[in-house]
Structures are given as structure tokens and as C-alpha cells.
Amino acid sequence: MTGKKRKIGLALGAGGAKGLVHIGILKALQRHNLAPDYIAGTSIGAVIGAAYAAGFSPDELEEVAKTTDWKNIVDFTVPKSGLLEPELVEQKIRKLVRHKDFHELNIPLNVVAYNLSTQERVVFSKGNVARAVRASLSIPGVFPPLKFDHGLYIDGAVTDPTPFDIVKEMGADIIIAVDLYRKEKTVAHPVVLGKSFFEEMQEKFVIVELFNIKNYLFPQRWPHFLRRLSMWLFDKIIYPAKVLRILAGKERSSITQVMYDTVGVLTNNLARERIEHAAVDILVSPSFDGLGWGDFNQVSRFIKIGEKAMEKEIPRLKRKLL
User: Is residue 294 exposed (0-12), middle (13-18) or buried (19+ Cβ within 10 Å)?
Assistant: First the structure.
């Protein structure tokens, strides 16, 4: 007589580009025919978890990640409540979740966000998947908060970076949690030539800012010749190209640096505290070897790291399924 099949719950957390390891983890699980029965995701974990639950295979997710021009996912605008305009991100998310509602997904999914209006964690499990994922991805200071249903939502990482408790509540017997926040020793790395994702993002932001300033100073209602002449003088005399290069290459502005540092420290501390006291069956702890949350140009490395980390835990997972 065989017992009831034990259900696997997979908790996919926040971590920017580090979250791409989740694709490798899904690939390793698929290789051993060990598909999760429940998924909970926060931030980038919500994106990957939702796409997988909507029907994308791990190989298809890898292809999407490798062919995505991460610089062009975001549409830069004058900052109000966030540095980036999220419309292109929202379009991408809608495609990844195939415009589905939660009840249409292949695997039960919960998505974590934080409601600023009520100051509480919110777990989405009904309605529009893309909207829930967009709410969970609203990194404070980077993307504007998402406003709907009388709430103002930001990244779930501020309250639940690794939602292992949620998959337990969903009904999972065996909980797999992915720890993206382990402390690692600092090691020397070879210098990588070329601009980083954030350097290119910053340069594009400066260029668009200049374009917006020129449109304000020289509105389109002006005569065409006068407007072109004025803009040319602005470029050549008032605001020479070398100033643009200086601005684009300078260090992050104080507000941006504070934003990155504050969110990063708070999320890391919260995640480590929660993981340390987590009641999980399988804790997958990838070793990132110096890669950071902004290294979106290292898709293949992240995915291989995820595969390697999950493969180490496969024997233990199989024993728990017996």
C-alpha cells in the first residue's frame, strides 16, 4: 500500500539579477521529473514563478532571459515616485504570464507584495496575474508604486524576501526555499570590459533627461527652423557633449545610492533573519562568486549556478519524497 504523494512547494524570492538562478533551479527539478506542486514568489521570483506557472518551460524561460535586452525593458522618464517608467516592464510581464488570471495557471501560484496604504503584506492568489507580479516588482524608488483597489503596492521584498511560509500555507508537504542572501567571502575577479547594466541605464537616463529639457526650453510649437537652430546651439555651446559624458560616467547620485543601499541592507537583513529561523525542508543556497543583483548581462552564469545548487539537493529531496 502506497502513501499519499507528498506535495512540493517552491519559494522563489527577490534579488534582482540573482533571481535568474531560479531558472536553473527549475531546470534541475525538471531534469529529475520533480515539478513543484505550489509556487510562491516575490519580486523577480514572482516573475519567473508566474511565467513557469503560466506554461513556460525552464528552457523557454532561459531563452527569454538570454534574448531580452534588459536595458530596453525599462522606459526612462523624469522621476516622480520612481526612476523608471514601468510600461515596458508591464508589457513584458503580460506576455510572460500569457494574459492569464490565477485560476487559469497550470500550477497554483501566490505572489507577495506590500500595501503601503494599509502597511501590511499582501498575498495575491486571485485575479489578474500580471498586475499582481507588477505590484510585487515595484522596487521602492525605482518603479513607481502600483495603485489599484484603493491600495498602493510596492516590492514584496520589504516584508517577505523568500516566501517559504506561504507555500506551506498553500498545502505543501516539502518546502524548497531558495536563499539568495547568503554571506560570501569577497574574492578578486578579473576586470570585465564594457559598461555594466546600471552604467548603460544611467547614461540613457541622462540622455533622455537632456532631451526632455530641450523640449521644455524649445517647445514644438516654435517654428521648425528656429527650434532646430536653438537646439543645435544648446548642444554645441550651452551644453557641450563632454558635459554629457561627465554626467553619464559620474558616480551614482546621492539619492540613488541611498536608495540602493537602504533597500539592499533592509532586505538582506530581513531575509537572513527569516532564513535562519525558517522551517524548510530543502534550503538551496547558490554561491554567486561575486555576481550581484545588477548583473543582468550574466544570464548563463546565473542559470548554471542555479542548476548546480539544486542538483546538490536532489538526493535529499528524493529521500523526503519517499
Answer: middle
